[in-house]
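Changelog entry: the Acyltransferase 3 domain-containing protein record was regenerated in this release. Current contents:
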Amino acid sequence: MQAGRNVHIDVLRFIGISCIILAHVAAPNWIYQWRTFDVPLMVFVSGLVLANKTRIDSVVKYWIKRSKRLLIPVYLFLLLYIGGTYLFSVANGTNMPFTDSQIIESFFLLEGIGYVWIIRVFLLIAILAPLYIRLALDVHKKYIFFMLIILFSLIPDAAIHLGFANESFILREYILYAIGYGAVFLVGLKSASKQIWDGWRELLGYVCIFILLCVCCLYRNGSLPLLSVYKFPPQSLFILYGVIVSWLLWNVVRLFSFSDGMLKSFILFVGQNTIWIYLFHIPFVYYLGEQVEQWWLRFIFIYVISIILCFSKNKVLDLYLERYSWVSYLKG
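Regenerated structure tokens:
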């Protein structure tokens, strides 16, 4: 584990990855809806991490480094997972569960076999991070920044309402994701240097807009909104919910201190290895999750075995890390 890691940020990563896995075990709907802040929280954390970078010396080098960190693990996993699934199907004389188009889409981080779309979000935010950092530095007045976040959250709504999203694949699958999650990233950037609870007025504004949107939805549809409905692409209700919960968690978590021990070590490990824990959980969701009847047992089983596999992988890689520097891209 890296020395000097911010345990509070890793606590947020721990919460985020836990809720993401929770979404894939068929938990009750009220839990499924409640935990929809998970991916926004991980984007919020990205903002916290990059907040101390007043500028990026070489944008191209930064893009290459971040792309390697994201794409090498994902592509290696996809090759092993899809290749292993193919060999298993041949050996058992069964049909391949994935179509050719699903496989191709997966490598483009689209719907594909499912789940890998999250990496597309992280990659989009990484590509646009220099622009967003510059924007956050240039906007000094709090009310202007607040209005900017509201604007970013409403743009996807407008694009969908006007029919533009259905007409343009690039707009629907890339631009709207970049704008929606960009709002969460910007709030993360601004929140890193603030004292605990500093910015509560802006939070109150986000809550008021969120409630107003819920009331509008109730009036229009006759029922309160299901937040998961507004996730693909991210729309205002989903975005603002993610902003609100992420901000609250960040400020609550900082109230606690974590002394050295097993709990802190565990949190740091999960926080440092969220991508691989996420990737390892995918095949167990597909093939083994349905073998366990209770959703909470599925969650524990899939989560624990994913962590064990990640820990084992790291131990093996440690044997080769000094000899082969590229191995570092397969850790963390």
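The mean pLDDT is 92.
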